[in-house]
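Sanity check

After download, print the first record. It should look like this:
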Amino acid sequence: MIVRVAFLAAAALLAIPLDFARAGDSAAGQAKAKICVTCHGHNGISMAPLFPNLAGQKPAYLASQLRMFRSGERKSEQMNIIAKSLSDQDIDNLASYFESLHPGGS
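Expected structure tokens:
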């Protein structure tokens, strides 16, 4: 019984998507982020209350959200349009770039 439970737990862990294991290029992400500053601000700190700060964001979370915007699974008129043009590598690069920014904006 214990062996079966351990086997099922290991199988469940292996089924989890490993998006967090992808490494992005922060410099390439910075170049791609030029369109992001319009809403999310310079250095990833938004000046508008409707748009979240991206600075210091966990890359697995940010990449997951961008992929959901791209697929249409998550709805936002602006983000769905923007994300459709992003490749998986673009998304990983953006996630790496925004993670590298200080969440306090400095």
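If your output differs, re-run the checksum step. Summary of this record's structure: The mean pLDDT is 88.
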